[in-house]
Amino acid sequence: MKPLVVVGSANADFVLQVDRLPAPGETVSASELDLFPGGKGANQAAAASRLGHETHFIGQCGKDANGDFLRKALEESGVRLVGGLKIVEGCGTGSAYIFLQPSGENSIVILGGANQKGWSLGGDEESAIAGAGAVLLQREIPEAVNAEVAAMAARHGVPVILDAGGVDAPLGSDVLKNLAVLSPNETELSRLTGMPTSTEQETLDAARRLLSLGVGRVLIKLGARGSAMVSAVEGGDPEVVRQDAVKVDQVVDTTGAGDCFTAAFAVGFVRGWGTERSMRWASKAASLCIQKMGAMVSLPRAQDMPVEED
């Protein structure tokens, strides 16, 4: 079975536990500060690897303690680092500052650091992409890099999945035309299309807009309401598959849940599972993730996730 290749960001996540977010001009106190490995790319690579699928990661860090911290965390999750996690000289490792409220909801500020500078894809990277069952991207690295990777994958006949999280900006046609699956949440879907997504019908209409731009399928993350896959059907109306979220007794931390969901779906995609089976497995993985603190450290492992049949 072919590996999954993830290209994306690696961040040191600084998590501040607060009772609530400050209003403009207000100061609030945090009860605790924790450091976790994270970044959408690294999270998704770790999630796929922990779920038992061979996963290669292409990413960058600074020559600092946070870079060493991330490299070790990825290796402990079983991720194979293409180029050893490239070091960008004169630039710090990317970081995220996460304000976590008692409800488990979070607000995040990202400092891109090495994720945004010095990218150069060479023979090792192209070889990894050419041999992949799929490539998984996000938007915490320069859009030009995603476009280059998507084009490279297309040349080798490798499908590309893009998680829309990471930046509030339109997606260029050079990326859209090479996507097998685009996975936004409702807010990201609205921003990508300029259309409202406050109702079920509005959400489906916005997804159809993306299909009209050349995307094969749109996998919408709906939080507590589950997920929906909207797929183009030649000569007919798009097909819609819905999956409910798995209910949990207590939400501890939602950080990384979307990354976990997308990565688990990508594993099912590479393994050739059907849409419903992949979505169901992804929902289960995300439900386990939100019951623990942190992003990468909360990701479930294969033994936590019995493989279901179609």
Automatic annotation (TrEMBL):
Binding-site positions, substrate: 11-13, 39-43, 140, 259
Q: How and how many cofactors are bound, per the record note? A: Requires a divalent cation, most likely magnesium in vivo, as an electrophilic catalyst to aid phosphoryl group transfer. It is the chelate of the metal and the nucleotide that is the actual substrate.
Q: Please write the reaction equations for the catalytic activity of this protein.
A: D-ribose + ATP = D-ribose 5-phosphate + ADP + H(+)
Q: Does the keyword Ribonucleoprotein apply?
A: no
Tell me which GO cellular component terms the UniProt record holds: cytoplasm; nucleus
Q: What are the residue boundaries of the Carbohydrate kinase PfkB domain, all occurrences included? A: 2-300
User: What InterPro entries does the database record attribute to this sequence?
Assistant: Carboh/pur_kinase_PfkB_CS, PfkB_dom, Ribo/fructo_kinase, Ribokinase, Ribokinase-like
Q: Write the Enzyme Commission number(s) for this entry.
A: 2.7.1.15
**Which GO terms of the molecular function aspect are on file?**
ATP binding; metal ion binding; ribokinase activity
Q: Highest taxon of the source? A: Eukaryota
Subcellular localization(s) per the UniProt record: Cytoplasm; Nucleus
Which cofactor(s) does the record list? Mg(2+)
Q: Which residues does K(+) bind?
A: 253, 255, 289, 292, 294, 298
Question: Which sites bind ATP?
Answer: 185, 221-226, 258-259
GO terms of biological process kind: D-ribose catabolic process
Similarity remark: Belongs to the carbohydrate kinase pfkB family. Belongs to the carbohydrate kinase PfkB family. Ribokinase subfamily.
* Physiological role: Catalyzes the phosphorylation of ribose at O-5 in a reaction requiring ATP and magnesium. The resulting D-ribose-5-phosphate can then be used either for sythesis of nucleotides, histidine, and tryptophan, or as a component of the pentose phosphate pathway.
Q: What quaternary structure, including any partners, is listed in this protein's UniProt entry?
A: Homodimer.
Query: What's the protein called, per UniProt?
Result: Ribokinase
Question: What is the native source organism of this protein?
Answer: Chloropicon roscoffensis
